[in-house]
Amino acid sequence: MKKIMQDDDLEYAMGNLLRLGVVISSIIVFIGGIIFLYKHGTHIPEYHIFKGNESMFNSLPKIFIGLKSFKGQAIIQLGIIVLILTPIARIIFSFIGFLFEKDLLYMLLTLIVLAIISFSLLAGTKIV
Questions:
Q1: 53-67 pLDDT, tens per residue?
Q2: Do the Cβ atoms of 126 and 57 come closer than 8 Å?
C-alpha cells in the first residue's frame, strides 16, 4: 500500500515551514524597525540620566493594542512572537504527519514535546 506522503516530502514541507516562519518574522521585525526609526530616530538619548522604563509591550493584549496604534516596538514584538511560534508550528505539523502515517509512538512523543514547550512558554508569563 502506497503512503499518502513520503518521509522526504514531510521533511521538505517542514523545512519550508521553518524557512517561511523565519522569513516572515524577519520581514515583520524589519518593518517594525523602520517604523520605530521613522518615529523616534531623531530623538537624542540622554545618557547622563538613567530612566528605567517598564516595557509597554510585555503581554499579548498590550502588543495587540500597540499594533492598533501602529507602534514600531509592538510590530517588532509581533515578529519575535512569530519567530517563537515557528518551531511550535513545526511540532504541530509533525504531529499531523505522524497522524497520516498512523505512527502512534511518534504521535505520543510529539504531543509530549508540544506539552513541555507549551508549559514552559506559558508557566512564567502573564498572559493578561
A1: 667 777 788 888 888
A2: no
Backbone angles phi, psi at 91, to 5 degrees: -65, -40
Specify the DSSP element, H or E, that contains 20: helix 7-40
Chain segment 32-47, per-residue pLDDT in tens = 999 999 988 888 877 7
Range of the domain at 114: 7-40+55-123
Is residue 94 a part of any domain in this protein? yes
Residue at 49 is within a domain: no
The structure's pTM equals 0.78
For residue 7, give every residue at least 6 positions away whose Cβ sits within 8 Å of its Cβ, in sequence order, or none: none
> How many domains does one find in the chain?
1
